Amino acid sequence: MRRILRTAAVILLCLAVVLTSGCRAVKSIKTKQLKVGVEGIEGVFNPFYAESEADKQINSQIFLPIQRRTGDNRLVNLCGGISYEYSGTTGVKYTVTIRDDMFFSDGKPVTIDDVIFFYYFIADATYDGVYSDWYLNDIVGLKEYYFDDKNYQSSIENIEERVAANYTVKTIETADYIEYLVATGIERRFNGDLNSASPTGASWRDYVSKLGYSEALSDLGASPSESQVMRLIARVEAETNPLSYDPETWYRDKLYKEYINKNYENGIDVTEISGIKKVNDYTCTVQFNSRNINAVSRLNALVVSKAYYSVDYVKGQADKVKQMTGFAVGSGPYTVIDHSNNEVSLTANDYYFDGKPAFGSLKFIDLAAKEEDPGLSVLNGKVDVVTTTATAELINKLTADKVKYYVSDNDSYTTLFFNTRTVDNFLRKALCGLASGVKSSVESAVGTYYTVPYRPLSVRFDEYPANLTQPYYTESSYSAYEIVNGTPNKAFTAYYLSGADELTVAALNEYKTLLSKKGITLNIVVADAAGLDAAITSGKADIWIDFVPDGATSDKFDYYNSAGTLNKTAVNDTKINELTTGIRSAIGLSARASMVSNLLDQVMEQAVEFPLYQLQLVTIYNTDTIDPASFGDSFDYDGFEYALPVLK
Description:
The protein is an alpha+beta fold. The chain is 35% helix and 17% strand.
């Protein structure tokens, strides 16, 4: 009897060991590891707050979206699906479904409650992560929830009236202007040191003196406090240079924050988003007031664990989730187990719905931190997978080596913008015509591995006009201007952002050379984001070079509608306003493509943007490590993120 009990005890002990280890038996077989090259790991493994490209690439293995993008930029089902039906004359009801065979890495089942939690969390006004503009969606009851006010409209109108009356450049009092400049550190342009460089290039001390404030500077004494110095600089700028800053946006944001904080601090009144309804454990519906082609992308939630992230969270306390920086429970094929020495190690998720990946572990390596060339990192054996900029030199090396690679268009293009505040339409068209000659700088950098968008839209979109063979403006456009007006009698100023890559700067300098051949002077200035925005608004920047990311859709509303948040050119055209609004509610690709084509022509007629180039990317796979059979006809991945789990 004692032997039987002892045997039973051993069996129970073994069962306990197995159960407490997540029902997994210990294996002695060495796990296959895949090394992946990225650049700029910050180590944020929180799906709501990861911002760097490298962190997003790592998080793509931990958290999956409902749908993924294919190599041709189309959304296809992954963890579920999103469908829609029209309701009434303007409304749309979206049905969001989740697979019924999914489990998180802790073994708990995935349900639609996890998706709804994602929507609710990013609709919290105290959330300030990468999805913090989600409240702008026209979902029934969303703004009431965000502002925690069922009658928010009147409060918003009051705020806008106060801003217009008191805080625009034309209406603001000097004292309020100074308060704004002090609070923002002169829009982050002054570090408190009078001997540091001002935006003019001269020291702040010399800059202030030349503007006639030498006596005020002397009054500060030999050892002024930083706050005294800051207030003097703020006074100088408010009195002499008010058009170079943007107090309106700062005060608007300040008033909105005060309004929201007051609502949240007085207790939560709105606990539900009325337009989001749970249907069953795997389905919910989301009611939009209006039609919007952005909607599917905006509803494409990451599948995150409500049980994991909501332990300490309630509405109004998003920081509780922000502080969760550990190795999270996820829905993807892998989970993080270590982050050290600029490397992140992941292990396969035993509960992944599509089966355990063939490579039992991943190691993401920060190539920038290790000063490794991404393009050569696979060839020299540092990593097995990497995505980098395609160049003729690199592709030639890859062709001669034992690797598999895929070339695709980048998800952004580089472009010139023209300021309608300082350059008239006829002259903008002429300057666009000369921009068509920017070519040698690009080809010397990448060879033929780029595309020229002949209209201001990424070529990755289905709506991009496929029949275009030449730019809207050419050098003859400048000749037409010159015949009528002669050589422009003003020097132009072009800006680029600090931190811009070498090709961006080279392209702008090539444009400068093209202008100089026509007797036109182009002065080039580098600035940070705040400085560039101020230069545009004040009219100091006639031209600027920047990149335009794909975004979710092709409507270009943000860039060209007069109410667009990214409309820095200040273009305001009735036809463009109508088209950017209409595209969002267009039914069917054919109708939408026709409207987009019309819109792009209208934008070109306004000559506020001239695209220069869209680079191409190459994703490289080491076929010494990866079975070439992994790359079949159905291999349709955009980058490596969704390809890693299927590699053999």
